[in-house]
Amino acid sequence: MPLLLSSVRHVWPHSFKEFVKVKVDSEINYSLCGCSVTVSSIDGKMSHMKITDVIKPGMRKIVAGQGLPLPKNPEQRGDLVVEFDVNFPDALPGNAKDVLKRHLPT
Fold this sequence. Notes:
Domain Chaperone DnaJ C-terminal: 27-89
Order of helices and strands: EEHEEEEEEH
Shape: elongated
Mean pLDDT: 81
Protein name: Chaperone DnaJ C-terminal domain-containing protein
CATH class: Mainly Beta
Keywords: Chaperone
Low-confidence stretches: 1-16
CATH architecture: Sandwich
Number of domains: 1
Number of helices: 2
CATH superfamily: Urease metallochaperone UreE, N-terminal domain
Pfam families: DnaJ_C
Structural class: mainly beta
Strand content: 35-45%
Helix content: 10-25%
Radius of gyration: 17 Å
CATH topology: HSP40/DNAj peptide-binding domain
């Protein structure tokens, strides 16, 4: 699964915790059928997530305690926010539309 990582310093407006946002681009087949995602925190620690839900554009998963160190308490860390985007195909080959219509709920 291709990943686009963009770590940016943010301040969460409601909790005032600092977090790192990582963007993951997902192909439509992984978005519908599930996948495993591995993301790296700013200190290089790898977090593995098994995604079994349908991934929708803008969906977020939180990895607690893997964000930036908190300014007032560097021993504590904010969260790592993994945000998903879904890459839709520009066109479908052959009878793919008919197959999808038969198998996907309406």
